[in-house]
Structure formats: structure tokens, C-alpha cells
Amino acid sequence: MPDTVRFQKELPALVQDLICGDDGRAEQAALKIGLCGCEALAALRPLVIAPDPERRWWAARALGQMRCAEAYQQLIDLLHDPDDDIRACAAFALGEAQVESAVTALGQVLTDSSVYVSAMAADALGRIGQASVPLLIDRLRNGAALERARAAKALLAILDSRSIPALIAALEDESPVVEHYAAEALTRLGVGTVLIKPT
Predict the structure, then answer these.
(1) Cα torsion at 47, 49, 52, 58 (round to 10°)?
(2) Which of 44, 51, 111 is nearest to 75 (CA)?
(3) Which of 34, 48, 97, 190 has the smallest CB count inside 10 Å?
(4) Other C-beta atoms within 10 Å of 29: how many?
């Protein structure tokens, strides 16, 4: 495609725009770098490992625009970055691209020390959809309170019938948040109206 070839030729300048400190220019550069595909990975590598977290964030943003396995793997690796914003950016990108190979890694981020990052991971799992369901069922049954809430909310977004038994059990959860999401999911799945708990 002509645009792809043109952006590849402009790649060095686009990388400079990505780290110029102007968010508008950097965002446009990230979008254009994404169009270069995996050919841009080598140019982004110094930013991915840069000490400056802002450079790593913009590298993650550009990686999120690519649609190739190598870029997805780098985003999965960035889920372990020490910076909260970078982990959140990587989780968002993986969910937006519905990267099924990221399910296990995103599941680990459900227990992230940052509430914001764990919420982004849950949202990403919900966006990925059916491939996330077995992991989410396990976390709904066996996770800590925050994990159970995140899992229930993601299952509400997916609405997969495989989750019904776990959602029914979650109606008795000690967390009102988990119980709320479970009840809503069951209602949307068409079974909530017959699940009347005894008084």
C-alpha cells in the first residue's frame, strides 16, 4: 500500500515525533508507525527498553497500533513494566486488538498493585471475549475479592453460557459488587428471572 511504503520511509522522523514531548504530534506518529507493521519494531526497540517511562509509554502506544504477533508479544512483556501507566496502556492495547494469546498474562494482572491497571486488564479480558471465559470462571470461583469482582464484570461483558454455574454460585458471594455483576449477567443470559433466592 502506498501509505505504508511512505510511512516506512518516514520512520526515523516518526520515531522522533513519538518522543518530541508534544502529545498531538506523538499520537499522530504512533498511528502512522502502526501502519508500518512489524517493520517498525526495530526502530521502537530502543524506546521499549528506555529508562524514561514516557518513552516506553509511547512505544507501547505505537505497538498497540500494529497487528502482528511480535508486537503483541512486546505488549505482553510490557504488562510487567514497573510503571503503572505503561502496564495499563499495554493491557488496553491487547484488549482492543483482542489478542487471545494474552489471556494468561492479563489474568496475572488482575492482581496488579494498581487498581487502575487491574481494571484495564479485566476490561481487556472482556473485550477478548470467549477465549477469556475459562480463566475468568476460575477467578470468579477462586480469586480474592477484587479478582472476583473484576472477573464477574468481564463475564457480564462476554455473556457466555459456560459461565452460568459460576455466576449462580456468585449470587452468594460475600461481596455485594460480585453479587451485583453476577445477577446482572444472569439476567442478560436469560436465566436471572428464575433464580430467586429464598428469604
Answers:
(1) 40
(2) 44
(3) 190
(4) 25
Cell for 111?
492482581
135-184 pLDDT tens trace: 999 999 999 999 999 999 999 999 999 999 999 999 999 999 999 999 99
Total residues belonging to the chain: 199
Other Cβ atoms closer than 10 A to 45 = 12
For residue 151, how far is the Cα from the chain centroid?
Answer: 13
Per-residue pLDDT of 53-95, as tens digits, reads 999 999 999 999 999 999 999 999 999 999 999 999 999 999 9
Its pTM stands at: 0.90
* 3-class state of residue 23 by DSSP: helix
- Residue 11 CA to residue 166 CA, distance in Å, equals 49
